[in-house]
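User: We ran a pulldown and think these components assemble together. Before we commit to crystallization trials, I'd like a predicted model of the whole complex to look at. Sequences follow.
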Amino acid sequence: MAKRILSAAIFGYFALFAVLILLLGFRWNTQRKAPEQPIAFSHELHVGKLNLECLFCHQTADKSMFAGVPPVSRCMECHVAVKTERPEIQKLTKYWNDKEPIPWNRVHRIRIRNHVYFSHERHVKAGVDCAQCHGTLAAMAKVRQVSSLKMGWCVSCHEANGAPTDCTICHK
Amino acid sequence: MDFLNQHIIPPTAQHLALLEFLAVVTYAIHLPYIAMVMGSTAVAMWLTFSDHEIPNPRFARLAGDLIDTVLGNRYTILILGVMPLFVLPFIYGQWFVGAPLAPLKYIVFVIPGVIAAFVILAMYRGSFAERKNKFQVHMGLGTLGLGAMMGSYFVLLSTIGRLHDPEKWFRLKNLVVLLLNWNVIWKFLFFVHLAFALTGAVILFFLLRWSRERSLGDAEYTAFARKFGAGLGLAFCFALPVFFLFYVFTSPDVVFDNTNYVLAASVVGVSLLIAYAFLGALQSRQPRFGATTFSLFILIFVLAGSFDVRAMANANREHARVIEQAAEKEAMEREVELETAMAAASGKNLGEETFNKVCMQCHRFDEKLVGPPLATVLTKYNVESLKAYLLSPVKVDPAYPPMPNPGLTPVQAAAVAAYELQHLASLTGGTTAPTETQTTPAEPAAPKH
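Assistant: Here's a predicted model for the assembly, 621 residues in total across the polymer chains.
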């Protein structure tokens, strides 16, 4: 009897840790994994192969807080004629004909906000390369969040580049 | 590293996968040996010290057996202990070819430290017979060798751990910052506890099973060694899932995918099996489960090594993709060369073929599609300037989207340029037909806005 209790106790102890690790995995899978998108748009193709500028589609990145998702009309400038036989482009055309925006899933998110203010405009105008935070988009078929967007990450880059590190620079 | 980089051909996806496999194999062979050496040296030192304080012949005998068995002869040290270390810079050097500030050079710094540690440990083994007279020299050598070994492997694990976190590379200017962080500390503590638990399996396997004749006929010593080994292993087994959980928990998000979580959970699962095997060895009257525990430990090293290598690959998957693209580009250029040769041989027009396949997606000669009608814009160019434009297009007319780089080779671009201008000339009557001989070098290579 004592032997069985001992075996069960050992099993319970190890199982606890295995379950904790799998729970971490579940949390990652629901919150941190690169999200599925309604259209399999590939940055690898458009940025890597075709060399399109970031600002060509994300037009407000140097003009506002938000980089902005391009309007469907920007896609259709080319895809009215280019590769119209592909199923993903036909999905795009359907959104265009239905006059609906594409319901993209958000990839980048500051998780603990604490009144954090971040402006794309300031960073683009200061000459920060998009890849510094967003990673090598030219190699991403599906976009994922590369940087943690945690405070330590922000501050270490501000320090390295001589940008101000007062609390009120970011926390408004 | 630039000198080395020039000698490395762009690796393909299969090549990178092979390197990852090789890294796992290297870890599975090398790290168990190092863990055995570290663990049994520490245990032997503790046994010798206890024997010195209160004489205990069984302790002294077990210490002697451990020291004798584990380090092996000079070939074992060379093959299992030193040579795999020279493989690592090649694996990571190829994987991280062209990466900015990959903290690779510290892998090389580890090698002399490990060699020194092995030399000192061999001296420590040699001084065992004289431990009574020169106790402090003996223990000093052990401490020094063990310290050098642990220091070197802290640096190695730390360096490899930094490869999992490319986001922080840009601030790794300080060596202390590079080496010290919680993630690495948890991993190192996991490794150290694994080494002690493995020493338990070493006693059960190498001392009581492999070289059985050594302890045969001495039932009392056999029973002592079995209980000591199984108890040691079982006790340290309980620490393994704790440190591995902390290691997983402090790893950056970018290293994970579903497979990696399954690998991490199976490390814990295998440590459960090992704990049961040690328990069985503790409770049975015969020396048993030696081979079982030892092979399960090798499995843990394979699983944890796979976790680490996969973490490295996940965190740097865009870097991997970039070098794969370089290989794909080279392969494509070879293919185009072949196509060019075939087109020339069969009398087909390479320019026309390429134009129909690539340019026709956006351009017609007489109508506006995505880009402007070619008849209106081609008049500005000759063959040379058009070829230059095709190789690196720039935005000319704000009314149209920018022309993406069509990805032509110089041969294709020249053929397309010649074909377009000839075709235009034939459309407009052929009176002003510009031919390939009619180049005007005075015009700029790339057209201005």
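The mean pLDDT of chain A is 89. That may be worth checking against your pulldown data before setting up trials.

User: Thanks, that helps.
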